[in-house]
Amino acid sequence: MPNAIRLTGIEKFFDEDSVIVTKTDQRGVITYANKTFLEVSEYFEKDVVGKPHNMIRHPDMPHCIFRKMWSRIKSGKEIFAYVVNRTKLGNHYWVLAHVTPSFNTEQQIVGFHSNRRVPDRTSLTEVIVPLYQKLSALEREVPDLDTGITVADSYLRKMLQEKGIGYDQFIFSI
Ligand SMILES: Cc1cc2nc3c(=O)[nH]c(=O)nc-3n(C[C@H](O)[C@H](O)[C@H](O)COP(=O)(O)O)c2cc1C
Fold first, then answer.
1. pLDDT tens digits for 55-94?
2. φ and ψ at 88, to 5 degrees?
3. Is this prediction's pTM over 0.90?
4. How far is the CA of 96 from the centre of ligand 1 (A)?
5. Which residues sit with their C-beta closer than 6 Å to ligand 1?
6. How far is the CA of 159 from the centre of ligand 1 (A)?
7. Domain extents for the chain?
């Protein structure tokens, strides 16, 4: 269970020049993790390869962001998203993730991969953290998760509509 580990509240940081990389199969099971991922997430390769990617899910991440991610990548498109992940010891680290499908020569999706870099600190503290808190609160307000995700997603859409920009523009504007 991803959320069974006790959270320490301690944030981990990684080098501005480093890229955290993982690859998954079509269901999101990890097939590759680079050295930086293993160092930051405090796992050994054998702990992660063959495991679902939600093993590092942090409870502060709104469900609606992952729903958007899966909807995008399954339809063959890329997405950028701010993500907080949990480490093996219950610490956490923030990334700006780029998640994209991998195609074979017939242009069929054969898996996915993600490259993650150090996120902009001001964007995180001033925009993303309060936004994710709001989205998570909306998701928890109703008894069933599916409705909660729809409510949170509508809030995000309305916020973007009021700004007159799409999700991608929003991510790059902050
Ligand atoms: C290539 C790829 C990379 C992913 N990276 C992460 C990640 O770093 N952290 C994370 O929590 N979920 C990541 N996910 C999404 C997870 O598969 C999952 O949807 C998410 O953790 C939510 O889990 P849940 O549906 O059990 O709540 C990734 C998925 C893919 C395909």
1. 999 999 999 999 999 999 999 999 999 999 999 999 999 9
2. -60, -35
3. yes
4. 13
5. 22, 24, 28, 53-54, 56-57, 61, 63, 66, 83, 85, 99, 112-114
6. 24
7. 7-119
